[in-house]
């Protein structure tokens, strides 16, 4: 074994498994968006928090610009992201879902272009968040889970059953 | 390169990074428990959901029995977990935090006993959830993030600022 190989037993997650993990969560988030009545996506929240559409804008911002940053090494600055400035976010549920699906396709297209050693490289996401790429990626996914869980509470207060958490199909 | 080695470039997350990822999230969840006033941990929820202490019982159940199952291959059945039956969960905030810290220590002690190839083995967590160990582990962590995010909403409705999501120290 040379220095640039390790035993397979040191691997917890492969790139392919990580892509599937992310897209599985994104399928669940898509179903959560679908579960919201159109008006409640935009004009409703709990505890003075952002509406679910605003949380989704943060998630789509991070996903679409995050995959680009990972592949190219070039990052939009935090201040340039939609959810920090005057938002150009989609204004209807259908448009949000369409945008969502574009990002899903982009991620599938761009992922194989990530040089495998890239996952262990240190980079500074959005000009601010420094870490190795695999940790940044987990952060993107964790942030989505976190905000989607909040959407579940919004749905519960509306008397709507959220999608099954365990289902990632 | 032989069949039982792969290039380091195929690794996204190492066992050590996965442990740190989990414990970082557990530190954040601990701070979220601490942020709740004692009475609101037990008697309060939003949208007819479970109280945060009940969500925490689910999380501690999964963590404490999950690490044992991963290490030993022996799993409590779902029906035997505290949060499914008459709960023996701690009844005060101090006792919850003490139990939390015991599990933190247990995970640190048991983790190095996981045979490295174990992460790719198929098992059936709690007698019900089948998958490779690394996916089961991610599921445990994702479930914690999901419910903790719901606790953030509870805190917001109480006018309490939740801990910073990005801080895993």
UniProtKB/TrEMBL annotation, chains A, B:
Q: Which Pfam families match?
A: DinB
Q: Which GO terms describe its molecular function?
A: metal ion binding
| Source species | Chitinophaga oryziterrae
Q: Which family is this sequence assigned to?
A: Belongs to the DinB family.
User: Could you tell me what this protein is called?
Assistant: Damage-inducible protein DinB
Where does the chain bind a divalent metal cation? 147
State the Gene3D superfamilies in the record: dinb family like domain
Q: Where is the signal peptide?
A: none
Q: Which residues cross the membrane?
A: none
Entry's InterPro entries? Answer: DinB (IPR007837), DinB/YfiT-like (IPR034660)
Which key words tag this protein in UniProt?
A: Metal-binding
């Amino acid at each position: 074994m040379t220095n640039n190989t390790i035993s397979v037993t040191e691997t917890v997650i492969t790139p392919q498994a990580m892509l599937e993990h992310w897209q599985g969560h994104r399928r669940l988030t898509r179903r959560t968006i679908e579960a919201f009545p159109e008006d409640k996506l935009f004009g409703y929240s709990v505890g003075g928090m952002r509406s679910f559409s605003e949380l989704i804008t943060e998630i789509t911002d991070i996903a679409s610009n995050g995959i680009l940053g990972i592949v190219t090494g070039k990052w939009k600055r935090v201040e340039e992201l939609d959810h920090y400035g005057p938002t150009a976010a989609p204004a209807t549920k259908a448009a949000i879902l369409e945008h969502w699906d574009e990002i899903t396709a982009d991620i599938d297209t761009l992922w194989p272009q990530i040089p495998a050693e890239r996952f262990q490289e240190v980079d500074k996401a959005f000009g601010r968040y420094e870490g190795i790429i695999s940790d940044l990626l987990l952060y993107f996914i964790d942030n989505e889970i976190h905000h989607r869980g909040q959407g579940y509470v919004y749905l519960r207060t509306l008397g709507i059953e959220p999608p099954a958490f365990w289902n990632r199909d």
